Amino acid sequence: QVQLVESGGGVVQPGGSLRLSCAASGFTFSSYGMHWVRQAPGKGLEWVAFIRYDGSNKYYADSVKGRFTISRDNSKNTLYLQMNSLRAEDTAVYYCARYTVTTSGIDYWGQGTLVTVSS
Amino acid sequence: DIVMTQTPLSLSVTPGQPASISCKSSQSLLHSDGKTYLYWYLQKPGQSPQLLIYEVSSRFSGVPDRFSGSGSGTDFTLKISRVEAEDVGVYYCMQGIHLPPYTFGQGTKLEIK
């Protein structure tokens, strides 16, 4: 079955950096585009970034553009989100999620990893 | 960016009764390929979101048939024919026609009376 397991969250000071990972299993990772979506405490869902199956194209929300970088290693079945210049408003649970052509949208989500930006 | 507006933001339903959630987009979600990229997700308490409906009205694998989606253009509806206790949580609509960014509705919290 499809499994997406995020890791790398934690507490970081404003201006700091963090790298999130998402380990994928149960499907051919190299054939699927992948997203990062975040959810601030008690708030709704906010799309963050997308990367095509082969890494050829990447898209970002305006709120993170220039600070966050999405990448993937298809040999390791792993998705990454490098987060730099972190701000208090980046505090959220970060989910990795799979894009599928079948539904032309997001089908499976990981369990999320919490990032807290605080001094 | 496309703005997604859900109503109501909360609803309380007696088990066995129907429920309906509306989602309106600020632009048409009908693509030139003929598909309409509107999705519905349910986030149960303490869990990550799960896909219920894709492309307006197609139920995802394993989703009970009491869930149905309808609509076109900019107006969409999720209906639950008979609410069960396991349906509690927050429902989100999402547009997938325009990337970046994908955008979500504010969420509708469903509670059981």
Q: What are the main properties of this structure?
A:
heterodimer; A: 119 residues; 7-stranded mixed beta sheet; 4-stranded antiparallel beta sheet; 11 strands; 0% helix; B: mainly beta
Describe the protein's architecture and organization.
With 119 residues, chain A is an all-beta fold. Helix content of chain A is 0%, strand content 53%. Chain A has strands at residues 3-7, 10-12, 18-25, 34-39, 45-51, 58-60, 68-73, 78-83, 92-100, 105-109, 113-117. In chain A, strands 2, 4, 5, 6, 9, 10 and 11 form a seven-stranded mixed sheet that branches. Chain A has a four-stranded antiparallel sheet with strand order 1-3-8-7, with no helix packed on it. In chain B, the strands form two sheets. In chain B, strands 2, 4, 5, 6, 9, 10 and 11 form a seven-stranded mixed sheet that branches. The radius of gyration of chain B is 13 Å and the shape is globular.
Largest sheet of chain B: 7 strands, mixed
Percent range for β-strand residues of chain A: over 45%
Reported for the largest beta sheet of chain A, the result is: 7 strands, mixed
Oligomer classification? heterodimer
Please name the two chains that share the biggest interface, counting residues whose Cβ lies under 8 Å from a Cβ on the partner chain.
A-B, 22 and 27 residues
